[in-house]
Structure formats: structure tokens, C-alpha cells
Amino acid sequence: MRIDPFFHAPTFTWSYVLSDPASGAAAIIDPALDFDPASACISSEFAQSLARHVEANRLRVDWILETHAHADHLTAASWLKDRLGGRIGIGAGILKVQENFRRLFDLGEEFRADGSAFDHLFADGERFAVGTLEGEVLATPGHTNDSVTYRFGDAAFIGDTMFSPAAGTGRCDFPGGDAALLYRSIQRLYALPDTTRLYLCHDYPLPGGEPRAEVPLTEMRASNIHVREVTGEAEFVAVRTQRDATLAVPRLLYPSLQVNIRAGRLPPAAPNGRTYLKLPLRIDL
What we know:
Elements: E1 2-8, E2 13-20, E3 25-29, E4 34-36, E5 41-43, H1 45-56, E6 60-65, H2 77-84, E7 87-91, H3 94-104, E8 120-122, E9 127-130, E10 133-139, E11 148-152, E12 155-157, H4 179-190, E13 197-199, E14 214-216, H5 217-223, H6 233-244, H7 253-260
Parallel strand pairs: 3-6, 6-7, 7-8, 12-13
Antiparallel strand pairs: 1-2, 2-3, 4-5, 9-10, 10-11, 11-12, 13-14
């Protein structure tokens, strides 16, 4: 098994190309598009680096896997599918996420909150193949309803469930978020074998530090600032809730979710031929 990480610095996102040398099959995990909110320009520079890697190594993309519908970057899943093929998969909890944000953005009849934007909705415990590699899906909700972990052998791609030990865990104040549920999901990960390597979706290094893509499970259990192996549920919920109350709204929250609940497709063009993203206002005059 080969794992190649790619870091999208503007959003502190790790994307991965997982490949099977025996068959040439590959999965792309949590790919990102570039988006400049000031100019409203969406581009594919980072996604092109993933595509070039796939093409240079003559890989066949079987899957494009989302650990959840992200709120901090736009997914490149559909752009990569159009260029490289493959099926887009996400956890079955996306149905709740789609319904929540269909109401928030008042999407109307054009948007179907039934998961059909994706090629496959993974159930907890489901197994699937990338060539000769066997993947297992672990539902790890709490950060979001649809959060899942993809496990291949000793490698677990954990999305925003946890960050590096110094950065802690994912926030739980989005619609459907639940700190107690996140704690239980983390305990599920902590129960994996000691040899497990955790692959992060984001890392936010301290000044002068380098972003980490991979953390040994033993290190995470011992030193995560929010939830060590000995941390109780009530203690974690209190810490996470207090922390969430201080956090700003993610910079790309509204653009990201309008695209990501559609598996990376943009909203339909308006009658004038232009494509628009909505911005729900919070009015506090």
C-alpha cells in the first residue's frame, strides 16, 4: 500500500492518494479546490497536482472518498471524477447534513437531499476494495452527522475527528454536531490496534512548525490536548463545548457547504448564465 499526502496550505487541508501497487488501483481522499472569496474565483490548481500524480504513476482511480461534507474548503471530488473517473463515496449521514443545509440555503426543489449527488453512501462497517486493498468504513460522527473513517490495514483516514495532538479535536457546534458523540467516536478509534497510523484531514501547526499528515495512534492516545486515553466523557464534553464557544465561523463555511453537499458540483446556473452562491445573513442591527 502506498500513501501520498498533498497539503493545501490555504485551508490547512491534507488530501491523499492511496494506491495499490499490485493492481494500479487508487483512491483519492478529501481532495480540495482552490477558492478566493474576495474575487469569487474557483480554480483547480491544487486538484491538478493530484491528477498529475495519478496520471504520472498510471493509476486507475476507483474511488474518490470524502470523510464528511467539509465546511472549510470546497471539494474537488466532481472535478477529479470528470478528469480521472472513479466513484464518489461519503458516509450515509450525509442525508441529515443535506437536509440541514437545504433549509439554511433555501435550495428549493432543484436540490435533492437524498444523497443522489454521490455515487455511494457508506454504511458503518461496510467493506470495499481498492484493487487488492480492503477498506473498512467506521462511522465516527460528532464533528458532523456524516463523519466517517476509512481504514486500510494499519492506516486510518480520520477526517476532522481529531487533529494533531497539539491541535486537539474537531469542533462540534455545526448543525448535527455533538461533543458526547465525538468522544465515543474517538474511543472507537482509540480501540484500534496500537500499530495504527492516523491520517489527518487538517493540521494547524504552531508558528515555526510543519504540518503533520500522520500521527501514530499511541502518540494520539497519550498526548492529544483535548482527549487522552484517560480522559472521561464529561471532561471532554466540557472542554470541547467551552472551546467551541470561542471559535469564529469558518471563513469558507457557506461557499463550501453549498458545493460539498452536491459532491463538488456547483449550483445550477441562473437564467442569465451565471452561477451564484448564497450568503444567509445574520442581521443584528
